[in-house]
Structure formats: C-alpha cells, structure tokens
Protein: Ubiquitin-protein ligase E3A
Organism: Megalurothrips usitatus
Amino acid sequence: MSSKDENSRSGGDESPSTSGVTPSYGTQSSSKSVSFTEESDSMKRAAAKKLIERYFYQLLEGCGNTDCDNVNCASSGKAKVLTPNQAAAQAIQLFSQEARLCDAQPSKVARTSESGAEGSHQSCSAIADGSAQSSSASVLPSTPGHSGPFQSKLSTPHEDKQIPYITEEKLLKILETCKKESSYSLLIRTLGEVFSSADSLSNSFVKRIPESPLDVLLDKAPPGDLRLLKKEDVRALEADQDKDEDSQEAAIRAHCVQAALALGHCSRPVGVDIGVWDTYVDIPSLRRTYTALFEQVPGAILESVLVNALTTLSASMEISRQFAPTSMCEGARLHCFVIILELPVLGTSEYLEVALPAICKEVVKMPVYTQGRLARIWAKHCKSRLKDLLVSLQQLITLKVISGTFSRDHSVQDEDAIVASTKLMKILYCASILAGELDPAELRNEDLTALTDDPLLGVGYSGSKVPPSAQYEDPLAKELQINVLDSRKPFIPFTDFYNEPLSEAVEMDKDFAHFKSDSDGFHQTHTHCPGAKFSFMWYSFILTPATKTLGLYYDNRIRMYSERRMSIYHSMVGQPVNPFLRLKVRRDHIIDDALVELEMVAMENPKDLKKQLVVEFEGEQGIDEGGVSKEFFQLIVEEIFNPDYGMFTLNQETQTVWFNPTSFESDAQFSLIGVVLGLAIYNNVILDVHFPMVVYKKLMGKKGTFYDLEDWNNTLYKGLTELLEYEGDDIEDVFSQTFRVCHQDVFGSVLHHDLKEGGEQVPVNKQNRREFVDLYADFLLNKSVEKQFRAFRRGFHMVTDESPLHLLFRPEEIEQLVCGSKNFDFNELEEATEYDGGYTALSPIIQNFWEIVHRMPQESKRKLLQFTTGSDRVPVGGLSKLKLIISRNGPDSDRLPTAHTCFNVLLLPEYDSKEKLMDRLEKAINYSKGFGML
C-alpha cells in the first residue's frame, strides 16, 4: 500500500467517530496478519466496524471533496451509484481489500454535479464520523442514551449538553410521581421546559429508526474478524432485491437525507423522494400521551403552561428564523409542528386566541417543500385529526372576523391571524385531497392545439399557449403533484372549507386589486411577491361561490372597460371601433342570426368576444342594460338544446343533455355553442342548461371516468357496478358480455363498437371486467364525442382563456356559475327585497304580495322571477343575492304589473284588494312571453 493510502486511512482513524480505536490497527500493512486477543477483541471489532461504516458512507455520499480521485468515493464522480444494500456489501469487500479511505471534507459538497445532487450539503460520511459535531451542536442536540431525529445514528452524543425531552414512558412516570406527591410542579416544569424549546421538542416522541442494512449485516458476523462474514449474506445484499419503500433500506436512506438536512446545508436533495410521506414523530405514542395527560390533569393547569410555552416557542422560532436562519433545520421545525398540531385542545379557550395564531404564523413560514411534507404526513398518519384541526382553524378565523374592526384602511386581508390560519388551512386542504380518493393525473389531458389551432379563430387569435389550469398553478399543489380535478372524493368535503363570515367580510374589489398586483410576479416565479398584499383569491377554497363570483365579475368588467378605452384610442387616431359586442337578431331566426354573427366576430377579431354584450331584437324598441341579454340567452338555449335540433340528446332518466355523437352539424357550430356558454359566464348571466357534471369536469381539462356515469346515466352505472361487484364464478354466463358494445344514433339505428381489437371474440370475465368498464366509460364519455366536445371546449376557451376561472372554481362550482343555485327560498328573497315610491315592508299591499307569492307553486315562482328579472334561475348564493326592488306605480287601477328586467324592478300599482292583486299578478307572469317587459 502506498504511503498516501496509509495516510488516508490513519487520518480517518483519528476522526472523532473513531475515538478509542487502536491507532496501529488503521495503519497496518497488507502483509501483516491481524491477531485478536480476548482482552482487545471487542475493541478491535469496534474499530473494524467503524472502518466499514466509513467505507459505507464514502460509497453512498462521498467525502465531500470535489477534486477527489478515489474511484471508491461518490464525490469523485467515478463511483457507481449504489443503493444502501449494495453499498453495505461493497463496504465489506473494500474493508477486506484494505482499500483507500478519503479524508472527510465537511465544508464541501458530497457529490459532484454529475451524480445528480443539487446544492451543497454536508456529506453523510462526515455526519457518520462526527467531523461536523462541533459546528452543529445547536443543530443536533443530543441527550445521553437518546438519539433525536436529526442526530446521526452513528455520531457520538454530546455528554456535556443535556437537552430535556419527553417520551410516553417519561411522562407517565412523571404523572405517577405527581399523583404520589399531590403536586403537579414537576409536570408543569417539564412541559414548560420542553414545549418552549425547539431543540427539546424536536427530540421528543421520536420514532425508533430501523437499523441500516450494514448494521444488520455486521451483527451476523461471528465473534472475531469481521472478514469471516458469510458470503451468502453479502451476496444477498448485492442482489438488492428489497424494493419496498417501507423497508429498512428506505428508512436508512431517509435517515441519511434528514441528517444532511439537519446540518442546514441543503433544502431538498434532488431525486430523494423516500421519506416524504413519513415522520420521525411516534404519533401513536404521542396520542396515547396526550390522552393520559388531559384525562388525568386538570385542564386549567395544562392550559396555562402550554399556552405560555407555545407562545414562547413561536417567538423564539421567529427570532431564529430572522436572525439565525441556519440555527435550526426545517426538518426539526416540522417535527415540532407535527407534535404541536396534534394537541386535541387547540380549538378551546386561550389556545384559540393566543397559542394557535402564533403557531400558524410559524408553520406557514416553512418552505413549500416542507409544507408539502406536512401535508403528506397528515394525509398518511393523521387522518383522524384533520377534521378537528379544520374546525379549530375555522373557529379561529370566525372569531377574528367577528371580533375585529375592519375598514378600507384595515381589512381582513391585513389581519395576520386570519392570513396565517388561511395559509395553514391550504396545507390541510391539500392533505384532505391526498387522503381521499384520487384519480390518476393522466386523466388531466389538456390539448393546447385543440384549443388554439382552428380556422374559426382566425390568424389574429392570440390565445394563451399555457393550459388554463396552469396559468395560476399553485406552488404547493405543484410540489405535491396534485390537482383539485384529481380528487374524486376528498377526505373532508370541499364545502366544509367554506367560511361564510369571512366570505361576507371580504371586500372583493380590494381583494381583486391585491390579486392583480401579485399576478405578474406569480406567473414568473410561481411564488407570491414578498411585498404583495395578501389576496384570498389565491386561497379560493375558503370563499363561498357567491363571493368568488364577485372576483370573476370584477375581472370580466375590467376587461370590458379596457376594451372601451381601446376603442376611444382607436377613434382618436381615425380608426373607430365598436366598444361593445353588438348582436342584432330576429326573434324568429335567433339561432341562425346569432351563430352567423358570432362566427364573423370569431374569425375577424376573437378579442371582441371579451367586450360587453349588447343585444338588439330587430323591430323591437329597448335599451339593453342586461335584461335583453338575459332574454336572448334564454331563447337561444331553449332552441339549441332542444333534442329536435339534433346537436344534443336528452337522457330521460336524469333529464340531462349530452352531445350527439352522430350529429351532422359542423365543428364551427359546436364551437359557437361553447362561445355562447362562455359569454353567459363572462356577462354574468345564468342559463337554463342541464349538463351532467362530467361536462364541467371536461371543460376544466379532465377526462370522464366510470364514476361520472352515475350522474349522466344512472341505470348504466348501476349495471356496470353490479358487474364489478359480482362474486360468482359464472360471470360469463350471467352477463354474456363481450368487448363489443352497441349504441343508438339519433335515428334509433343500432351501432356496434369494439372496445379493443377483436372485441366481439373477447368475453368479459373476472380478470378483465375492470378493463371493460373503464374502456366502455372512456368510449361513451370521451372517444365517441371527442370531435364535438373538442370544438365545444375550444369555443368556451375563446372567451374564458384569460379568466381566473380555473383558479377560483371547481367543476361543481362552475355548474352553479352557469346554472345558478337550486335553492328556491323565497323567504330569502323577501328579506333582501327593497322598496321604493312610498312602499315599505309593512305596507298592506306588500304583505299581501308576499303572502300570495309564498303560496304559489314552484312553476309560478319561476315565472315570477322570469317576469321581474328576465331569468327564472336563482343566482349563485341563493335568492338573498338577488336585489329585487318593488316600486309603487300609482294608485289602484286595472293595469297589470310591469317590470324593468334590466334593474330587477317590479312596478306594482296599489291595488285596493288582495283578490285583485292576485288576479293581476297571475295574468302578468303568465302572459309576458316575448318582449312584454320594459
């Protein structure tokens, strides 16, 4: 062996991790034999084990020297990338060969750029041999006999630094002592000391880390020379057959990564995904401890000490984050927060007012990667805790909203506790999605060419090349690789995240301004600008659909006003343009006229579709302030969705319309129907359409699946469910189904389709029935109407491509946006109605009016809404959002009531009897079809 190699090995033996090792053992030549005596056998064996461990970590993580030329070191870039099992086997071989060992270089990166590591971080070999202990004493606190989650398993504990910590066993013993002494002073002192210190808390309730494959291998060696290991044991590791992520291999690899994270030299090693779902907190033990604690100790005692301790902890974390950001790793912070947020009393008393807001502020300051880890940990280990934690956060937000004093200068967006709680709820929201039922991400397939490459759009179309759902992509969702569209059934219903008091208190005009000020920076970096104001539009899950509709309304109106300003500039330079999207149609030819005019606009200048819509019926007088447009949409929807028109078919069972797969209409026709739907949303008009929910999911970019059949064709869904759940062995005889299916066209002719090649010859059995069901659903919901739906979605996208629609609304909420609410509560309408011209809520005719209205059948109530507002649909949020005005229209007379549908005003003469009021009102609402309203 060369002198250089000898120096390398002797130098390695003098490191702190090998203190107590006989120096001569590390410098012996290859020609000398090793003789173990009984007195020094254990010492020699320990020395050999230390050397093997150094080889092990050198192979896995390297020495940290970027100029290393050792072929058996990961830092050289010449070593083969190994798994821990393979590295353990090779470490034994290198030890037997007395191969060269490198000196640890803790100040340098562990791997070269070729090895795929990103950023600089402490090598695990340096952690293993303790070379970084002195510089990281505050980062890796240890207690004799106790190894924390961020202390290397192989490192030497600091005997001179006693860090208090608690475990289930210790706390139970303390409780027994307190009972014997009839005093809780020891418990109070212990809890206060541990829960107020991040170092102490991060070393409490630590899950036992499984031994590494190297430890398992070395334990098998017979007493004496470790070179006597059985060859089959080494070869078993070399084969590396254990691929299970929950295996010991995964645990030790995660441990090595966390040790590097603990030293604060890297925020996220690239390519290391093992362990992101796991936590070092022993959660079952933690919960048992909390149960015993709160059952045996008076709540007042615990509340005082824990609230004070958590407040102190939050303050110390904030100070360390601001002035000593490397003093504590994010993994240790995460460990602390998992323990704290498991407290079952966070939603009570002072915890809610003092401790929880302080903790929330610190949790949301963690990097996105660490927040993602917290979401995964909650989803995997803490499902039973999610609901209670959501209730606590909702209580905190509601309390701050109700008790706060807000103005234009200090709004809810400026309240730190509300903002922090909302951000923490976002992590919980993602955890709920992860913990629920998820569809594969592959079902989200947004074809940009289908949205933009079409002759109908013309050469002037400048639509976004970014998918609508990606324009406002959330950083946390991106980190977790999830999307709300993937969630078939969240663990907690989405509606439970709504906070109505907050939604009522948010001033959406101001919130929208904050949103727009942050949008540009968000598009570029996918992170919010540091100086930007907080906007709830980035956290729309907490807002009710009615409030979110206001955000969309402001966005649409600003675009309309922008088009008006541009028309003024064009007029000033001698190129006047119409500031509105003006449509002139004949009532008897409304479909033909509307589609022709919209097609011309789409071909000449698609941006004109974002102008405010103004409709004029030929031969009729009236200024469109909204009411005429409502009637236009109602009439065109009645015509175009009529099954007799041939573009859509009606399912009699569910009363929903679906695309006719054998329609003779062109793609342009379906594109223009999508334009109509987009224009309705853009102009805040509710339509009487009856699509199944899968249409809105497909509009948002997700393909239909078997589960979507339930809403569209319930009978078929039940039949396929029976096929999937059938337990008998005679499935082929009972169902007699092959992979060829039949369906009818619009004329009633039976058509056949093979779901796979040779489908008629492939019977459905137990082994392939799931494949059959998925292929059948894919054919019905996707492939059979692919051409029609692509054109439909393209037209919809032409109007809504720049809108924050995907950011604000889920598919279920899009349906409400298009169709309105299904809650016909006329008591809400009565409470929201205003009066003018001398009428008040106590006027006799007004009291008679509401008595008559409440007794009307549902159909008559719809007609009343149609008569007074121009639409029989209930707005999002219910009838309380509809501002109806009843105005006095002179004394008693024989005239019928009239209405200004543009302004939701009902002009009601002061009839002298209840019977006359009922007669005139019924005639007005039943014979007002057409433009009989003002």
